[in-house]
Design brief:
This protein has 23 helices and 25 strands. The chain is 55% helix and 15% strand. Helix 7 packs parallel to helix 19. By secondary structure, the protein is of the alpha+beta class. It folds into 4 domains: 205 residues, no CATH class; 208 residues, no CATH class; 213 residues, no CATH class; 158 residues, no CATH class. The protein is globular, with a radius of gyration of 34 Å. It starts with a helix and ends with a helix.
């Protein structure tokens, strides 16, 4: 009998190819995203590891400053580096320490122009200037080699790495512009005298090699190196050398070359792991939605096969065999879906890699790496998800009584939904209480987590109480069916007749659109808050800011001031990480000029004028640190510089600033010249000057800085909004997976319901309903179900998004919830269109039902 049941299961799958294909598609969509994310991150990890395996080769010890921060173009050092005195001491003690070679490094972030004069974009990869080390002096002579031309020999000569040279269309003999990100320098003209090959070369990576003396002048104060690499004499191990150096220089970070490579790999793998978690989160969403689609499909399959299963029971099949029969079908579907999903996932990974490479992302190029993890994950996830989804229908199938075979009508298997509705309402109450409590709290990570937990409880409530909610909601939107007369009435009746099926069908759409609403609400709140703040708080006419980089040299301020028609100029400068009286000073900026003339901020105490030797602090900072006006704070930066800075006023924290505003004289004491950089310059045009004319003049003056953009405050607000919109598009695109599965769910359910209601449709056709009317009935029913799912998802999603923004208010000063009404209306209209499109094939299939055959079918 067991063998017979297996044959029945397999033949049942083969006999319903369309149903099989739709269910397998639901599985593969979820598993393919899992496979794609694992293959992509595995490939990137392997590519980066291959690069870092070549870094610090031959280096036995490397000395770097402790607590070295980052920022700027591609990584701005927060410290002066290693003093020349340490290098001199190493030279003196090289025999005692068994040192073979000492190689100081001088490096900093740069931007270089392409042949057409525009900035060469690295796509997120480093764009750095380094000191050229001749092979005979280098610890690793193969780290960088000249493949064309010669090494730089003068202050304006450089060598450019091969991949960057090709991308910039530069060759030996060409002259171009170059900008050093930090310091007081201005753009300089350089000549390409050599093309180099570097072990760190990747797609997008830019390495400009200077003569050592030039690099030392550009990237240091003349008495520090960025880092120092050391090789040991034969017979001395790396560990021995590092131990000796640590004992001699305990104030610095000293590692073996192997540890340097390991740390570099750990850092990039940590980033890739975060990226992987994001991809897997969206894969999880797809799997959850797919789980309900599979569950719904198997539930309907069982309902349709009541007679078949009952007949099997009547000829001797046991309850366990019936249950196993359904689970066997699920197992086959899970295996097929997992295997196909793996193939599709590999294609997704390849497509994502090609897309990022084409967009100039700066990621390294390499062949796809398909390890055992994605293969096992796809098969396990596909089988487990499908089997779990089918378990409840299988359990229900095993309870079918043989007497059901003698019944003329089919049972719908519907039981009372009262108990599950009550349980669902309890979950909803707890979820709402958590969300409301978190929104009313002081904000932070804890309350945001409570909102997330409340959202999970609301999703569970929707699953449980969805059938009960579907009836009143569909009756509410049922007015849309009135223009269709009796056909519309029949469609509305069909939609509420089987609330379990309706709720399960709509849930896929509900979950997908709920996440769209959460992201949309957060995005519109952030975007709207910034736009409002720019328009209300910035009073300046023009804003000069970096484009595709984090900072600019300080020279931009002087050049802007010299432009005809420019009046007031305020330069905001990046501060180094610092501590004040033992407390961390976050969000501090240096200010050159009268900030109150171009920016509106509310003073709580003291004068709005920023004294050159003093600083203003926000009310948030004053409260957190307990600082007061008149108090002098001893600020110490990571560079080791310090200054006594008095607090001259307290202002109300706003969208753009919630930290310390440091006067220019105090800033100059705290930040060494080569570590200074500009964040933004705000300009008021001179009286009588035309803003558009001055904008063009400033743009021409800033052209040589390569990565500068000059905007009005309206343009500045729009560019910030555009950045947020780009992020939202990516997130919406990833959520599209869940929506695709939701559409498939509606198609699948309607197609199966057409089969289930074949006799009913045949009767309607027999009493005179035309084929067009049958199609119209299915279309309207689908639209009503889609609108129910969309309404439920949008309402819950907006509530969760609103609460999340409320929890961010104390952390992100100036942000407030803004409901994206445009997105809500568009989504509801789109849901109706989706419902219509999803019903096209089931509607056509229903219209082709032959009345006499359907009525005679038993």
């Amino acid at each position: 009998m067991a063998s017979t049941m297996r044959k029945v299961s397999l033949r049942n799958l083969a006999a319903h190819k369309v149903r099989l294909a739709l269910t397998v598609l639901a599985v593969l969509l979820g598993t393919s995203f899992v496979a794609g994310s694992l293959v992509f991150t595995g490939t990137m990890s392997s590519a980066f590891n291959g690069i870092f395996d070549k870094v610090a080769v031959g280096v036995d010890a490397q000395i770097t400053p402790r607590n070295n921060g980052s920022g700027g173009f591609a990584g701005r050092s927060q410290t002066l580096g290693i003093p020349d005195s340490v290098i001199s001491q190493l030279q003196q003690d090289r025999q005692q320490l068994h040192i073979a070679k000492i190689e100081p490094a001088y490096t900093g972030a740069v931007a270089i122009a392409k042949k057409d004069g525009s900035a060469l974009q690295s796509g997120g990869a480093p764009s750095v200037g380094v000191a050229w080390t001749p092979p005979e002096q280098a610890i690793n002579p193969h780290a960088e080699r000249i493949v064309s031309g010669h090494a730089p020999q003068g202050p304006t000569q450089v060598a450019l790495n091969d991949s960057a040279a090709k991308k910039a269309h530069l060759s030996v003999g060409d002259t171009t512009k170059l900008v050093v990100a930090n310091g007081t320098g201005k753009p300089m003209q350089v000549t390409i005298v050599g093309i180099s090959k570097s072990v760190a070369d990747t797609t997008g990576y830019v390495q400009v090699s200077f003569q050592k003396a030039t690099a030392e002048r550009l990237f240091s104060d003349g008495s520090h190196a960025s880092s120092v690499s050391i090789s040991a004499q034969p017979g001395t191990s790396s560990d021995q050398l590092v131990a000796q150096l640590k004992a001699k220089f305990p104030q610095y970070k000293i590692e073996t070359g192997a540890q340097v490579r390991k740390d570099a790999k750990a850092a990039i793998n940590g980033f890739l792991q975060v990226f992987n978690y994001i991809l897997l989160a969206f894969a999880g969403i797809g799997l959850v939605v797919g789980t309900f689609l599979i569950y719904n499909t198997f539930s309907m399959i069982v309902a349709q096969r009541v007679r078949e299963l009952a007949l099997l029971r009547s000829i001797g099949a046991s309850k366990r065999q019936i249950s196993r029969s359904v689970l066997l079908e699920a197992l086959v579907i899970g295996l097929v879906g997992g295997l196909v999903g793996l193939g599709v996932g590999i294609g997704i990974a390849a497509g994502l890699k090609a897309l990022l490479s084409a967009s100039g992302s700066g990621l390294p190029s390499s062949s796809l790496v398909i390890g055992p993890t994605p293969v096992i994950a796809c098969l396990v996830v596909g089988v487990v998800v499908t089997t779990i989804s089918a378990w409840f229908p299988a359990r229900r199938a095993s309870k079918v009584s043989p007497v059901e075979a003698m019944r003329e009508g089919q049972t719908d298997g519907q039981s009372s939904i009262l108990v599950r509705t009550i349980i669902g309402l309890v979950f909803a109450v707890f979820g709402i209480v958590l969300i409301a409590g978190a929104a009313a709290s002081k904000g932070g990570g804890g309350p945001a987590g409570l909102v997330g937990l409340g959202g999970v409880l609301l999703v569970i409530a929707i699953v449980l109480a969805g059938p009960a909610i579907s009836r009143p909601v569909i009756r509410l939107v049922g007015f849309l069916a009135r223009p269709f007369g009796k056909i519309g009435q029949l469609a509305r009746t069909n939609a509420v007749r089987n609330p379990r099926r309706t709720a399960a069908t709509a849930f896929s759409l509900t979950l997908g659109l709920m996440l769209v609403a959460v992201i949309g609400t957060m995005g519109s709140s952030l975007k709207g808050s910034i736009e409002q703040a720019v328009k209300s708080d910035i009073t300046g006419d023009l804003i000069v800011s970096p484009q595709n980089t984090a900072a600019l040299p300080t020279g931009v301020g002087q050049d802007v001031r010299s432009v005809q028609g420019v009046g007031t100029v305020v330069q905001m400068l990046n501060m180094l990480d610092a501590t004040g009286n033992g407390k961390s000073v976050n969000g501090a900026v240096g200010v050159s000029g009268d900030l109150a003339s171009v920016f509106k901020y509310t003073m709580i105490q003291g004068s709005s004028t920023i004294h050159p030797e003093g600083m203003l602090i926000s009310d948030k900072m004053a409260k957190d640190d307990g600082w007061k006006v008149g108090q002098t704070i001893g600020l110490t930066t990571k560079a080791g510089t310090s200054a006594q800075v008095p607090i001259t006023g307290i202002y109300k924290a706003n969208t753009f600033s919630s930290g310390a505003l440091v006067g220019i004289s105090a800033y100059d004491k705290l930040v060494p010249a080569q570590l200074r950089s500009t964040n933004v310059v705000i300009i008021n045009v001179a009286q009588g000057a035309k803003v558009s004319t001055v904008e063009n003049r400033v743009g021409l003056a800033m052209k040589d800085y390569l990565t500068v953009r000059v905007q009005t405050k309206e343009q500045f607000a729009n560019s910030n909004a555009s950045s947020i919109n780009q992020l939202l598009v990516v997130l919406y695109g990833m959520l599209g997976l869940a929506l695709v599965i939701a559409v498939l769910g509606i198609i699948n359910t309607l197609a199966l319901s057409v089969v289930e209601r074949r006799r009913e449709i045949g009767m309607l056709r027999a009493v005179g309903m035309a084929r067009a009317q049958v199609r119209r009935m299915i279309y309207v029913e689908s639209i009503l179900i889609a609108l129910f799912g969309a309404l439920l998802g949008m309402v819950v999603g907006v509530v969760i998004g609103w609460a999340l923004v409320k929890t961010f208010e104390p952390v992100l000063t100036g942000i407030h919830p803004i409901i994206p009404w445009g997105t809500v209306v568009f989504t509801l209209i789109a849901a109706a269109v989706v419902g219509l499109l999803a019903a096209l094939w089931p509607g056509i299939r229903a219209a082709r039902t032959k009345p006499l055959e359907a009525i005679a079918d038993v």
